[in-house]
Structure formats: structure tokens, C-alpha cells
Amino acid sequence: MRLEKASAVSRKELKEIARNKYFVVLMGIFTIVFPVLFGSLHSFFGGPQHLLQFMFNMDLLMLGLFGACISGNIATQSFTGEKKSKTLETLLASPISDFELFIGKTISTVVPGILCGYFSIIIFLAIVQIRFAYHNLPLPLNLTQAVFIIVLIPFLALMFCGLMVTSSGAFSSLIPWKAVMITIAMITPVAAVLFFLFRSVFIAGFSLLPAAITLIVLFLMTLVTLYLGARMFRRENILVVM
Amino acid sequence: MLAVETHGLKRVFHVNNEKIVAADDINLQIEEGKIFGLLGPNGAGKTTIIRMLACLLKPTSGSAKVCGYDITKEQMKIRALCGVLTENPGLYERLNAIEYLDFFGQLYDMPKSQREPKIEDVLKMLGIWDQKDQLLGSFSKGMKQKINIARALIHGPRVLFLDEPTASLDPESAKVVRDYISELKEQEKRTIFICTHNLDEVEKLCDSVAIINKGKIIDSGSVDELRAKITGLRVYILQLKQMKKEYLDAVRAVTGVKDAEIRENVIEFHTAAPEGTNPEVSGAIVQSGGEIISFWEEQKTLEDVYLKIMKEEEGK
């Protein structure tokens, strides 16, 4: 694999994403509007400590999922959209391997999602911190929780990207919005598994073992979805059904 | 050396349980530094052949080599040596012309020191240097085609596959592209494979031609060879100062002259051996008192040739 080529693809894709108003608005909403909204709700509503803690954990997870959704959305445009706009054939005629192309596109898909996820959580924590500091309470964030969230966001972004590529590879002739619908159908069972895992982490109060098990399961799920995505991403398939 | 050679190349698609043979038993031999034209109606299989030779599709059976490399085993080498302009390709509309060409230059392993001057050269040659900073989404159809041509040329490919290269270009731009294609062949000895409906373009540019229909090559050769095949005998026209029946009789009396007749104030005749026949025809006219204004060979256009071959094929 030539890293230079994968890197050229990533840089080109990121440039296009930065100039796409739809993605800029979407990233703005997920990165700024939602964390401000969630953080403000914490400031308005009081309640028992355990309820606040639960809401805090849920909000952290939701913001991480939003970052992954951005990656999934970009992946749909990047893979399926390129088929629709007839730019992929030109790209495939150049001396770049399927794997280099897949890696290049995956990086450019995942990086904005991860960055948005991290920024949204930083904004959220900053707003919640103001409220907790006002009431002279410590921020309900322990080390395991912090590490969990930091590791969770890239896994989720990669997993959603893999799911999108798998769906667009399996249904190559579909227009992007149909691929999105199919991907939502694919994501639903995955999301159910995620919430089941997160629930056990919540109940255990973010102690090390359940958090570690959850991350390992997520890691394996990410590998499987990425493997499926890479398997589905084939020149021949893309061009024949385009 | 052969730049492109194919042996029994075949590609079958299965669409909705239906078997479609897009290319069947394709045998081509294109010498290095030559321009080859592939002619045929829509859906004849031209694009499929280009896609197989450019390693975008694998053949169902048969074999082919491009620049000596096997299309099924050495795809990366072929891709690096070829430039491809597909039919109606899309563009990254949020990039400007320089960014777009620079991206492809990187994919073709061109160092930055080579990419920058080459991009400038190609954009200037195609007359779009002034629009270099505009996003491609704002380009007209013709300008988009020019950018695609620039992209196919950016790395100086040894073999260039062009699918309808001048479609959607205005006559002036089409001429610029045609002249550049000729220049690539003459000065840089590039091999160019063109699929087109523009018969005039093929006639002006191509050293050899193949006509394809329903996935099969139905005829091939140089434009002159194809012309000779359909016309058989060569056709000559005599324009005289005054037309008389006796001049026609004099022409008919010459050995080797066939089907002589008066047509719209000229005498038209066929002959298989003009070197011997035509001086005798001139002499016979002069001897019978006729005055020749002009005497020329009627050229059948490639369009005539193409239409006749296609008509014969449809009649089979």
C-alpha cells in the first residue's frame, strides 16, 4: 500500500467536505447546537444526583453517537455519491489500489466525525462544568468514563463508516438517500447492541471491567464492519452495477 | 512494437438473469505511435472494450496486452501508463482546476516539480488557464470536457483511451483537441485509441479503424482499405467544357473502363487500374475533340463506408 496515495485521496475528500454546505451545517449542528442544548438542559433542570448522573452519561453517549453519524453520512456521500456523480470510474482508472482508495476514503470519513464528537463533548463538559461549579459540585466524570468516551468515539465512527460502505457496496445501484435508508435499517440492530452494552456500563457505574469488555466488543464489531466494507469495495462490482 | 493487442477478448454481463454479450471475440493489433478509431452505434460495445483495456473491467475470456502488460495480471502497470477519458465522466465539482489535476498527478506518482509546469501547460493548451481557480462546478459542459481531457493527459500517458473526446466541445475547441491528438502522435509517438461517432474526426486522425456492432468487430483496416473494400473499383470524374454523347462513347471504348455514364454534366466511370486507364481516357477525349476542364477521383467518405458496412451487417 502507498500511503501517499491514500493520503492524497483523504486530503482531496476533506477539501470537498469543507466546501460542502450541507456537511458544514450538519457538523455545526452536531458539534455546537446539540452540546449547548444538552449542557443548558443540565443547567436548567435539577433533580436527584443519580438522575443527573444518568442524564450526564446518556448525553455523553449521544454526543459520541452523533459524531459517528456524521462519519456515516460522509461515507454515504463519499462512496455512493461518487458513483452517482460518475467520478469513481475516473478514479478507478488511475493506478491506485482498491485498498488505498478504501483507506483514503475511510480516513477522510472518520476524521471529521471523531473531531466533531470530541469537540461536542468538550463544549458539553464546559457548559455542564459551569453549572456544577456554580452549585459547588464536582463534575461527574471519572477517569474510566473519560477514557471510555475517548476510545468509544473513533470505534463508533469507524463502525458507522464500515456499515455505510457495506450498504453502498451491497446496493451499489442505489441513489444515496436509499443507501441511507438501508443503512439506518442496518444500524438499528447495531444500536440495540450498543445500548445493551452501555446499559451494563452505566449500571456498573463505569467501573473498569464492564467498560473494558464493552470496548473490546466494540472493537471486534468495528473490525467486522470494516472488513465487510473493504470486501464490498470492489472495482468490478462498482462499475458493473453503476 | 504493439501498444495494444487483444486475442478473442470477450465480456458477458448478466443483467436480470439475461446474458448480454457486450464484446465478443475482439482481436485488435495497434502499433505503438498510431491512432486507432473504434466506430459503432450506441451499445455496440465500444466502452466495454475501453474499460477492459484500461483494466476497469475483467474480460470473461480471451486475453489482451497493453504496452506489453497483461490486462488481467499487471493492471497497476497498465493504469500507470494509460490515460483514460470515459464517456460523460463526472468531476469533483468542489475542487478548482488546479486542485483537480494536482490530485490526479499525485495518483500517477508525479513529483510536485513536474506537476506544476505540466498542469500549466495543459490548461494553457486547452485555453482554460484563466479559469484555473474557479470551482469545476461552475464550468460549462465544454470546459468540463476540456478538464477531463487535461486529466487524461496530465501524466504523459503512453497509451490514451478516449471515448468521444470532442463530444460537447465547440468546433474551435474540438479542433484544438484534434490538433493536440495529432501532435501527441507525431511528436511524442503516443498511441491513441479513440471511440467516436464523429466519422470526420476518424478520417482526419486515425491510421486504422475498426467497425463494431453488437459486440463484434465487423470490419477493420485503414480508412483507405475500408473505402476500397466497399467501392471495389475506383470512381473517376471528368468535367468537360462541352458535353457530347460521342465523348462518352470514346470513354466507354477505352479498355478497363466500366460503368461510364453522364451524370450532371460530367462523365463518371469506374476502373480497377487507373494508372493505365486514365491517360488513355484523357487521350480518347482529346482525340474526339473534347476539352477537359478537370479530372479527379471521387472519394467515398468514411461515412459512406460506415453506413454501407452497417447496412450490409443489418441485412445479414
What can you see in these coordinates?
The complex is a heterodimer of chains A (242) and B (316). Chain A is an all-alpha fold. Chain A has one domain. Chain A is built from nine helices and no strands. In chain A, helix 2 (21-44) runs parallel beside helix 5, helix 3 packs antiparallel against helix 5 and helix 6 (143-170) packs parallel to helix 8. The mean pLDDT of chain A is 81. Chain B is of the alpha/beta class and 316 residues long. Classes of the chains: A mainly alpha (242), B alpha/beta (316). At the A-B interface, helix 1, helix 4 and helix 9 of A face helix 2 and helix 3 of B.
Q: What are its keywords?
A:
heterodimer; A: 85% helix; elongated; B: 316 residues; alpha/beta; Rossmann fold; Alpha-Beta Plaits; 2 domains; 4-stranded antiparallel beta sheet; 11 helices
SSE order of chain B, one letter for each helix or strand: EEEHEEHEHHHEHEHEEHEHEEHEH
Helix content of chain A: over 70%
Unreliable segments of 5+ consecutive residues of chain A? none
**Number of separate strands of chain A:** 0
What share of the residues of chain B lie within helices? 25-40%
Shape descriptor of chain B: elongated
- Any idea how many domains of chain B? 2
Count of DSSP E strands of chain B? 14
